[in-house]
Design brief:
alpha+beta, 5 strands
């Protein structure tokens, strides 16, 4: 017996120049919330990752509205996660001829919204 899948809107943000650990703090706050409530929470968040995450949620909601005809007030965040992207490796040269590696981490944020 085949299961029917709910229609969903999806958006991805790739190569965000922020560590996934910091982005996950924001992502965990809004998981499972209705889209309007999640955007309100992010609007007043002091975390720097809140702005790009909110933008990605808006994009997923717009995709659901455009392709599936769902209204934004009925949408809820079904899945949201932040994965690790490629790491930019940089060097900081230290005293006495030593070398200190600097890892500039990136993140990939994925948002999937469905109707309630």
């Amino acid at each position: 017996m085949e299961q029917t899948r709910k229609p969903e809107g999806r958006a991805e943000l790739k190569y965000l120049r922020m560590s996934p650990r910091k982005v996950r703090l924001v992502v965990d706050q809004v998981r499972g919330m209705p889209v309007n409530q999640a955007l309100a929470v992010l609007r007043f968040s002091t975390k720097r990752a809140a702005v790009p995450v909110a933008k990605t949620i808006k994009s997923a909601a717009a995709a659901a509205e455009e392709t599936l005809g769902l209204t934004p007030s009925e949408l809820v965040i079904a899945r949201i996660y932040a994965d690790e992207g490629p790491t930019l490796k940089r060097a900081k040269f230290a005293a006495r001829g030593r070398y200190k590696p600097i890892r500039k981490r990136t993140s990939h944020v994925t948002v999937v919204v469905t109707e309630r």
